[in-house]
Amino acid sequence: MWSNSKARPPDIMITLETPRLTLVPLSDEHLLELAQINGDPEVMRYIGSGLPFSLAESQAMIERVKTRWREQGYSWWAMLRKSDGLMVGGATLQPEAGVPGAEMEIGWRLRRDCWGQGYASEAARRILEYAQARGIRQLIAVAHPDNEASTAVMRRIGMQFRGLETHYNTTCATWEWRALV
Question: Are 57 and 125 contacting, i.e. CB atoms less than 8 angstroms apart?
Answer without folding.
Answer: no
